[in-house]
Amino acid sequence: MKFDNRTQSPGLVRRRVAMGATAAVIGMTAVLGGGLTAAVHADNAATVSGIVLGVGATESQRVVSWYASAGTAQVVEVVPTSKLVKGQFPKHTTTFPATVAANTVNGGYNGHVTIDGLKKNTAYSYRVGGAGAWSPTYSFRTRDFKGDFDFLFFGDPQIGSSGDVAKDGAGWADTVNVALTANPKAELLVSGGDQVETANTETQWNAFLAPDKLRQYPWAATIGNHDVGGKAYEQHFWTPNTDRSAPFYNGDAATRSGGDYWYVYKDVLFIDINSNAYATGADAAHIGYITNVVKAHGRDAKYTVLVYHHSIYSPASHANDGDNQLRRQDFPTAFSNLGVDLVLQGHDHSYSRSYVIKNGQKANKAERPGAAEVAAGPGGVIYVTANSASGSKYYDITAPDVTKDPNYGPDPLNPKSHWANSVENQEHVRTYVKVQVRGDKLVVENLRSGTCAAPNAAVELGQESWCGPDSGASAAKPVGSTVDKVVVRPYDDHGHDDHGHGDHDDHDHGHDDDHGHGHDDHGGKGHDDKVATPASWLQ
Predict the structure, then answer these.
(1) What's the pTM value of the predicted model, to 2 decimals?
(2) What is the CATH number of the domain that holds 119?
(3) 3-state secondary structure string across 222-246
(4) Per residue in 239-286, pLDDT tens?
């Protein structure tokens, strides 16, 4: 059953038809007045926990995932918030039956629902469960389905890595609160991976999921190396258009999480890969996956943003890891050829922003360190590594070491930094990245969400001997202050004839590497959701 899409723009209808997204539905007993009713009774109702709102395949979708105490039929009830009656759900609501599966982590169950057919600029309220055992009511708001928007990118909360789950959770909750208080209209929360320290430790997951904002804003999950070692990651997060084929999975599908996925949100095609899978030809497989997605869906977006965990231009402890050395050879030329604009990464618990990189080289030798504005030119890509969002662990910036990798030496303009990076920063304070998506630019800003004071677990516990700018020589700057900000002017014919499917040099329209620098649906394999879409939704 599908929603009446007459209120959707033609482009969105086209994308949803192309998607053909579907989800296995259990517990559906009847269709009444266009709505769905699930067989959930008070005597066998499950209690639910770990509810998290996830990104959908389009602007008009959200995914809700959770844990449950029993494998009974469970549902998500959704209603425009304006139709709540004294905070209570009305008699007639739209109900989405859930996919529920046995949970390999804790012996319980996990469920998920794809909510489809949402209208723009509307507040919705939802609850999970069934008769006799409902979760609290949570709310989220959709925005315009086209035009400008902001999203927030968070690096490695890694709850538990300090050894103190409560302190790590406090820092993470404070960053989420600070970021969304400052940016209440942000539309997506994008993960850099490593939500927790130990893949299947539910006390860590509970602390990660504690902020209620994770039930109000969609979390676009990314898998990190600390998430991959068990099944909890994919049981907590159902992601759209996910391909869990062996090359993208890195090992035993029975015991590990993994997969690559993608979605389109307004003018951005987001592609998220499982960078834990890198051996035995996986890099070629990832490139093939990205290529296929860009060719199939690049026309639906102006910008392409890649997200994965392992930062190839790491400024700190992971700078010369073997997988990074390999990927500095494998990835950059492919990303340039495909018209990628921005690459968001984690893993290194420090912040860096690259120069404009084309085919694995600095595109314009004259681009200055810390330039406030850059023009990407054909094939130009910006790579960003996010610092810790929780304060659970920081890595210090390392000096370039050509004895470990002769191809990752110092920047001639700033020899303390690696050649690829315009900015490298570590202050041992929590930060997050804000990305503003505009019609003619991307604005990338790294912002402080904490100071040297608590909550800042690694500093509180004495795991860091200094805190603040200039290796602690200067006082910590206030919450909300800017570490780094850059305006990225993408190539002005950025794939508008084929969205960069092939080298941009083939149609550079007079731009060259010296231009503008010097400023100081959708179904993918493995996506088995059948989206229930009652027509009463739009009433």
Answers:
(1) 0.86
(2) 2.60.40.380
(3) CCCCCCCCCCHHHHHCCCCCCECCH
(4) 999 999 999 998 788 899 999 999 999 999 999 999 999 887 899 999
